[in-house]
Amino acid sequence: MAQSKTHRKKQKRKTKKKQVKSSHSQEAAREAALEKGLFYLNDAKYFGSVGNMDKAVKFIKKAARFLPNDENVFQAMGSIASDIGDDELEFDAMAGMERIGKVTDGMTVDMIAKLFSLKRYKECIERADKVLKNFNLLKIKNKSKIKFGIEKFRAYSLSMINIEEENKKFLKHRKISRSVPANKTAALKNQAGTNHKKREKNKSFDKTASVPVKSLAEPESVPVIPEVPITCKIEAEPFFNALSDPEPAGPEMYELALASHGIRFTESFESLICLSSLTQVQSFWYQEETAKKVLKQFRGRALLSDEVGLGKTIEALIVLTEYIRRKMVKTCLILTPTPLVSQWKEEMKSKFGMDIPTTDDPEFKSSSKAFWEKPFVIASINQAKSKKNFDLITAREYDMIIVDEAHHLKNRTTLNWKLVNALKKRFILLLTATPVENNLMELYNLITLLKPGQLETATSFREKFMKRGDPTDPRNRTVLKELLGQVMIRNTRSLAGINIPPRFAETIRIEPTKAEKQFYERLEILIISLYQKKKAGAKMIVKNLLTQAGSSPKAVELSLTKMLAKKDYLVEHEEELRAVKNLCRTTLDTPKNKALLKLVKPAKEKIIVFVKYKGTIEHLADFFEWNNISFSLFHGALSNKQKDAAIEAFKNTTQVLVTTEIGGEGRNLQFCSRMVNYDLPWNPMKIEQRIGRIHRIGQEKEVQIFNFCATGSIEDYILDILDRKINMFEMVIGEIDMILGRIRGEQDFSEMVYDIWVNSATEQDRKKSFTDLGTKLKRAKTGYNKTRELDDKLFGDTYEL
Amino acid sequence: MSSDTYTMEKDLDLTQFVCRFLKDKGAVLETVNMGFDNAESNGMESGLIKSGDKVVDILLPKELADALDVEEYISVAPDTDSIKSPKDHKLYAIQFQSPLVDRIVSMAGAKPPFLQASLKFDYIKTQGFANLIKEQFEFQKIKTRITGSGETKARYLLLTCRFLAQSDEQKQGLLDFSFNLDTGAMVSGMDRMMVNAQKEYQLKNIQGYSKKEIKNIHKLVSIYGPDAVEQELVGFVQSMNRRFKRDSLSLDEYYNALVNEMKESLARTGISARLVEEREEKIALIPDELAAKKNDLLNKYSIKINFTPVAALAVTTPCVSLLVTLIAGNRKRDISMIYNPVTKQIDPLVCQSCGMSTYFAGLCKNMHLNCLDCLNQGCTLCL
Fold first, then answer.
1. 240-269 in B: which are within 8 Å (CB) of A?
2. Each residue of B136-153: pLDDT tens digit?
3. pTM for the whole structure
4. Geometric angle at alpha carbon A64, from A60 and A67, rounded to 5°
5. Orientation of helix A53-66 relative to helix A71-84, angle to 10°
6. Predicted ipTM of the assembly
7. Which residue of chain B is at minimal alpha-carbon distance from A201?
8. Per-residue pLDDT tens for A685-724?
9. b/e burial code for range B66-98 (CB count within 10 A of at least 16 → b)
């Protein structure tokens, strides 16, 4: 017992000694680690400052190992990471800060973007969910914008995960079973002569397989559905018939026999003969398949209701071109809302090589009777339905009618509906992304235009398919689906595989200098006096001068020089013109240019600068040259060869591409993800076209848009409405058109802006009118969103290809 | 070759097709207002007739006119609307699905044509085969040595098949296969490279293939067909899968709702025990009914593919036969390889286990030539 007591005491002493020793050694180790960590941190900072980034990264990582709780280390790590653009390291730095509780709210949000760019989609979703849950508590600016961005990241990550899963599943099931022994099946991979090609083939097969993805809204616990079985049964008899007692043929007959099969495929619309001639349009697979379905199954009468931005116009024009090539259509009337007439003309001319007369042409105004006799016409539906033209149009026959924004035909009591109903036609295509806005009867009215009787009479339709109390919730869905499926196609973005990273916009308001203010004031006086003298006659000039003023003084100067050369202005105007022209002479160092330089210089990333006027291009070219920034110029005056060279130079060597609106149309610019609207078109569709140059299929990074405007300018008001009020820059392509369509009536958005500007007596009036316009647009956006949600709920992916 | 690429590559011109067909069948053609002289026959051969040209007058042999159910003297034009019809004879429109075109197309493709050709070459490679083997082939643990070479003749079959994939809807197209009939190797791309070879067509004394040969050809198409058609049907298969999934999900939705509705109805008061029992039995049957309906759907959307030969070109060509010794350690095996002057490549070898053509081969323990897959899985001849 005593022995054991002594033993215990001994043990206790020993343990205590050990503890002291170990605490000493721990202390020493801690000190050594601290010392080492600080050493590595200093080294990392040093190498970072001398530009040896490899070493800086190496040492900062070591420092983080030794000083895992030191804020300075993670701050240095973050700064090194951002210098070299290493997203992974930057994320590690932020994660470190988060771990030690030093993370800011802004950083938490940034971490989502980082996870997204690192393609860690699952983590990105988890983090986004976490942030969104407590979003109200975050102390950050631009909350609504950031929330929208996070939601986009989340949705995009979800779709990427779906794609990956779909790919995995597809690869698992993709082999075709065949009526040959199993051992041969296994050996198929090793096909001779095509081994290399085969690999490529498989690659492209997999790629295509990745295109269709599940809808984002699809619930996560979807039951597992097998792939459809594919059996390849090759009967021997036809081989014996063809090869044992063959039909001798010469080379001519041989070729003709092969051609005869090609003709049969063409006749059955198995193949489209127009595609080879469409060199200016890049049609997507779903657009071609849609066209085939319209031709083959719907026999040229269809409701094309693809989601916004998928290219319904292209689909309709492929169908039209195909019919023309087959000589089945020799006359066609295209009906659109007035502001879209020019857009259709442009699209048909540039992409399909068809120059079609429109109701915008002077010829229409001079002789409308002769105009309506033309075989192909693009007409404003308002012009077409007017008393003067209604009878002229309905008296003749058309092979084909295309109605864009066909939701304007939803009401059968309107003149729009009556006109289309009265038209004599063989084929008809109705284009709308929102066939139902408030009531299923709207859909009935549209389908009845396509195929009268398809949904029986209105009373019968109501009885069979509509519920009392909720006119948007159909009953007998299976039957209705069957009937609609015979006339309607509605492709979704998930089917088309369009998953473009989000885009973000930033408005950069620039305070004009005293001299600039003086210039704008004098110009405004000139504009008002021109407007008061000529009113409607001066509209074009006034509008041009106003937009040029928003671009650059150089652009105004060129315009004024031309005006003076014409010499058809009154003396006092001439004097004022000269005075304003003198004020146009500015230095290159304008605040706007300085702001641009701030964007361009530090990032060293490629950037596209969009401008509207040649004068501004020249002005910017001088500015970039002066500041030693490499740039390429792209505008309409260049030959095709020069344009190619400019794009090539921008891709490979130069940092900036300064381009006019036509910049890069049809050219791949997706390697660049930043753009500047140096000036701002008044027409939102034009702005969207600019964004569409880089925010399109193939873009891998999030797109950053910088909008420049002078404080208090027209562009400032426009941006306030489009960006702040309705968030246009972050919408899906095509949506702005749907919203504008709800407010514009006969007037273009730019016309509305112009009217407000010239008709406001005071600055306050102007402000109020713009606020009213913004409210109107916001209301239109809410209405559009509601309609879109309803249509999504009603149709979903049921009417996809 | 899909139907799409077919029309794109050959730039199908209906008028040209009709004129060539009629001329081949003995008709005499004369172009009117076509913008070139002396087009009676030369124009057709040189392909001068374009769809934009106006009218072609045609004198048909009686039998052909009868077969086509038209008069012996006719005119054809791509666009009859803008042309005044001649007084003494009938003008036919050459448009897709017009009756005359339809009959001509049917006649042209009624029976698979069999064309025989011998190829001639001014020069055929005699050296450098060792390098070619090195470039083209990869042998596993084998050294190769060419022990002899000599010019010989090889038989190839360039077979065009129409594939028809049927499901909820159908898709068809043409596929080309080129086989070395002596070795059974599939020679990819030979059909495209035939354009450069001098051909001598044989129109008389045409002989078909023996039963054994046809069986072999059928077997080859069965082996290579499924993979070849896979590429053509990517979109089609995806579309059918999408529809199947969509319909399956809505079936699930419908039956779930039905079950819920029926279960709710059980809770209603005043229902007799018997009725409850009956309804419960009905609910219990729903999973089976759902499974049956899903099976119906699966059958509806399952894809069945068939191949039919539509044209055959039998080619005899001079080639170089190479005697190659494969050396694996201290064991040797002699094989023969064919240098194909059309592709300017050595034809692939054929795996003795699976019958597939291959450029990656090895020898099994019993010296059977196997592709790498079969070599890894075990030679079937040794099992």
1. 240-242, 244-246, 248-250, 252, 254
2. 999 988 999 999 999 999
3. 0.60
4. 125
5. 160
6. 0.85
7. B231
8. 788 878 888 887 778 888 899 999 888 888 888 888 888 8
9. eebebeeebbbbbbbeebeeeeebeebbbbbeb
